[in-house]
């Protein structure tokens, strides 16, 4: 994909627990310019300098400077994080402990030799929905919910007029919290309860489970997800729900049952169109 804008492209960045992904995002179309995509593994439990260096290796290769201007950077970052000031608040989460209370924005700006105001941070779950709204599965709607299904459970909404992290993963649900019933670890736990065997992830479960076991587990999963979504839909009144994350790639195993169990039939239930690109576009769209 080629850039079609005369404006400098934004740099969209997705920082996860073990990686950094970044690319130029066209400032007019809000599409990722695929040829610029950079990925780097990050030793997130190493020293602050090692972490920052791995980020800089990617970011410095994407900075464009012309006519006294430079590329502006939007970074999707997991929390807890002071997004306004660029200060990491992650501690005891098996990632980025060495950055606790460090002003990451200040360090990156200094090392990249760009103004601090040219770097913005946004919550990673919010970035997913922003991306899908900008040029993905929710681009034709005004009110949307974004749900990411994977090792954790992400939930965002723009029903209030701005895209916000709903943080419903920790909402009371059955005998625990929602994330315990709507995430990879629920699949692993349920598979072991039924078969006595262990699997590392949903992909391995799909490769090894019998058809009847898969049907049983995904039927229960659709129950759990529908209860969660029906409550969220009732509160937020969206036109569309966009579902992303690794578990969403098993779409064919649960979408028919899920759609049947959604109470408000006027709400479209859609699979992510952008996948990993959503966070990059969403982060860049913070400059819109």
Remind me, CATH topology of the largest domain? Answer: Nucleotidyltransferase, domain 5
Number of strands: 16
Q: Tell me the number of structural domains.
A: 2
CATH class of the largest domain: Alpha Beta
Task: Report the CATH architecture of the largest domain.
Answer: 2-Layer Sandwich
Going by helix content, strand content and strand pairing, the class is alpha/beta
Radius of gyration, in Å, reads 20 Å
Bulk shape: globular
Major sheet description: 5 strands, mixed
Q: Approximately what portion of the residues adopt beta-strand conformation?
A: 15-25%
Please characterize this protein's 3D structure.
With 288 residues, the chain is α/β, with parallel strands linked by helices. The chain folds into two domains: 10-123, Nucleotidyltransferase, domain 5 (2-Layer Sandwich); 137-272, ATPase, nucleotide binding domain (Nucleotidyltransferase, domain 5, 2-Layer Sandwich), CATH 3.30.420.40. 33% of the residues lie in helices and 21% in strands. It has helices at residues 48-60, 104-112, 124-135, 184-195, 202-208, 211-236, 255-261, 277-284; strands at 10-15, 19-25, 38-41, 65-66, 69-70, 73-77, 81-82, 87-88, 119-123, 144-149, 153-157, 164-165, 172-173, 176-177, 240-244, 268-271. The strands form five sheets. A five-stranded mixed beta sheet has the order 3-2-1-6-9. The chain has a five-stranded mixed beta sheet with strand order 12-11-10-15-16, with helices on both faces. The chain has a two-stranded antiparallel sheet with strand order 4-5. Helix 7 links the parallel strand 15 and strand 16 (268-271). Helix 1 (48-60) packs across helix 2 (104-112) and helix 3 (124-135) crosses helix 8. The two termini are 21 Å apart. The relative contact order is 0.15. Mean pLDDT is 94; it is low at 1-5.
């Amino acid at each position: 994909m080629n850039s079609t804008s005369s404006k400098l492209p934004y740099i969209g960045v997705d920082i996860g627990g073990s990686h950094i992904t970044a690319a130029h995002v066209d400032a007019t179309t809000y599409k990722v310019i695929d040829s610029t995509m950079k990925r780097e593994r990050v030793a997130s439990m190493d020293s602050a300098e090692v972490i920052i260096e791995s980020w800089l290796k990617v970011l410095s290769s994407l900075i464009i400077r012309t006519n006294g201007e430079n590329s502006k950077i939007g970074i999707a970052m997991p929390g807890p994080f002071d997004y306004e000031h660029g200060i990491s608040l992650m501690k005891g989460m098996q990632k980025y402990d060495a950055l606790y209370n460090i002003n990451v924005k200040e360090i990156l700006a200094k090392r990249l030799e760009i103004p601090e105001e040219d770097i913005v941070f946004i919550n990673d779950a919010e970035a997913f929905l922003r991306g899908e709204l900008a040029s993905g599965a929710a681009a034709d709607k005004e009110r949307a919910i974004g749900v990411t299904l994977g090792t954790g459970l992400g939930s965002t909404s723009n029903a209030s007029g701005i895209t916000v992290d709903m943080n419903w993963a920790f909402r009371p649900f059955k005998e625990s919290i929602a994330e315990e019933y709507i995430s990879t670890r629920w699949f692993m736990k349920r598979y072991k309860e039924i078969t006595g065997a262990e699997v590392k992830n949903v992909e391995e479960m799909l490769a090894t489970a019998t058809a009847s076991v898969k049907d049983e587990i995904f039927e229960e999963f659709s129950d759990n997800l529908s209860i969660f979504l029906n409550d969220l839909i009732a509160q937020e009144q969206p036109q569309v729900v966009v579902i992303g994350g690794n578990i969403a790639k098993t779409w064919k195993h649960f979408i028919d049952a899920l759609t049947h169990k959604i109470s408000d039939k006027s709400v479209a239930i859609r699979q992510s169109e952008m996948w990993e690109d959503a966070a990059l576009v969403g982060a860049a769209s913070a400059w819109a």
